[in-house]
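Input for the complex:
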Amino acid sequence: MNGITSILPSDTVAQAMAAQMKRKVAMLRRGARTITLSAGGVDLHVRLRVAPGADRLLVTFHGGVDRVRATLPVFNGFIDDLPGTHQLSVSDPSLGCDSALRLAWHAGHDGFDTPAVLRAVIAATIQQLKVERTAFFGTSGGGFSALVQSHAVPGSIAVVANPQTAIERYHPRQVASYRAACWPELPPDVPLDSVTVADCARLYAGGFDNTVIYALSLGDSHHMRHHMLPFVAAIAHLPAAQRLLLHTDYDGNAGHHMARSQYLPWLRAALTATNTAPASLLTMWHSLRDAPLRPLRPGRRRPAPVSPAFAPSDLAAGERVAAWLAGAAQEPPVPSHGSILSDPTLPVLRKEHA
Amino acid sequence: MVNPYRGREARAFWSGAVADRHCTAMTDLWDPIALSRHDRIATAGSCFAQHIGNALTRRGADFLDCEPAPPVFASGDEARRFGYGLFSCRYGNIYTARQMRQLVEEAYGHRRPNEAIWTRDGRFFDALRPAVDPAGHASADTVARARQLHLAAVRTMLETMDLLVFTLGLTECWESLLDGTVYPTAPGTLAGAFDPALHAFRNLRHADVLEDMEALIALIQAVNPAARILLTVSPVPLVATASGGHVLPATVRSKSILRAVAGELADSHDHVAYFPSYEIITAHPARGMFFDPDLRTVNALGVEQVMAQFFSGSLAQAFAPADAQAPMPEAICDEDRVAETL
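Predicted:
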């Protein structure tokens, strides 16, 4: 391990924090709360919003932090209007290693295996909340964290926007700051990937059981060349590559930028599609977009006839409800025996109304 | 000579309790019921009941949602547009006591409505809650399937709730001449078609409402003997009357009947109480200030005043406004659409 204090024997820390998380989640029936998990001399802060009756979980990771303006812990805000979804926002504990450190990718530091701890904490949350579908979300550095953690949850969905896919392919100054603050004894010629999960291309090239929705602004040339293309190349040979949904667009802004309106429909689709198959995600995303695309040649393809009496958005949502109803668990039939119906002491409607 | 008013509480006298106070400064308008954050609270009734449910939720009450939105909506607002999250089940607005009674009877197999599905422009609607699916469904089977799930949710609610907050809204309704089923909206407004051979206007009288409510209370007690009921009367006037008269006296007649029945039920049942939201909003000490300029829509100040009175006394401490900054969603009142579809 190159003289570095091992972060791997963190099972005890991870299990301790997972157990704490389980207890604290069990006590939160609804609403939002900041939860602090403590073990191994490190505090891990998360914010959890519990939605009664929900069976979906959205886990979000922040990216780079302006340390002049922000104080720790920092969290992504909860996303409103996600019905039926619990939300968990994770603050990166490694930012505490240096007051000037802006980004640590939730990749841990010497003595603290953040990826392993998060795997355990998120698994405990999923179990305690009885979650049936989990989506991981992040932009930029948070996208890297979402890719790493989603990989550990088979069947989950990572929704990432302009993410880094390998820490050491990011801007050298940021990488150097992270190495200096979090891995001070790691020799410069030893890659970060030897001490933590630092390369998603390598991670995913070994196979993956999750789905990745990867949104990229074509104005962000650095993230296209140094992060998207290597990631795509690394997994292109895998059958699982069919579970990569790659969305590129350009909203007129060059650089590391993406409007919320670009990725929010994907996030909603990930949480509301009938299932996590790419076809289902695409169908839902398309139905959630503000305006459907026009045919290339007007008149050649006619849109499906719709009743002018109803708003297209109502019809689309109605179809989604119908699809959900078709798959909903069969309810017991309305009782006709042994119920209050057979109780002669109870009033019934007058004959003309009964 | 003994004066029976001597020694009464200050609130018993108009001058001190009303005349010398601003209407927002009146106190002791009701005797708050015993309620804790652990009590499971269900809501049903006219659209004004949504305000009470929203306020209870914001104050940390255990608001029962037995028919939560499936994860298919793009937003919470869209889910609400489809009738989810407005009340404890997705029944939409229940305007009359008879509608509520018939719903409970149907949930437990007492009755099966003869005309339960309406159509409009080739789409199918649940006639007993036509507003919850704004565009209906492509098949009658889907409507029937949704109703079975709905009735199961209603049973769950009735059997698990500790308190039902029920807001009486109207006496005027439209019923099926086939079996007496009453509908929340007239056939031919949101869906369906009005047929004078099959449908008739009915203005429920005091005796009708009282009988329906007594039957409802008995039905609830049969499945959940510990459940309590809190009655309110909606202060929202009729959007239109089919009685043939002027809408103002029609409104006063309707609300007077509902108010009288609610009071009688609270007097005659220990587990039934009445909260005077109707009086707070409509009585003349408020001089109409709690209505929008249309004199029908209750404004935010009115809702706030009702809730301030509701969470008074022991309830003020039990339900401290922890999340009072969150905006209250608008109530959805589908009876407004009567005028839209004329």
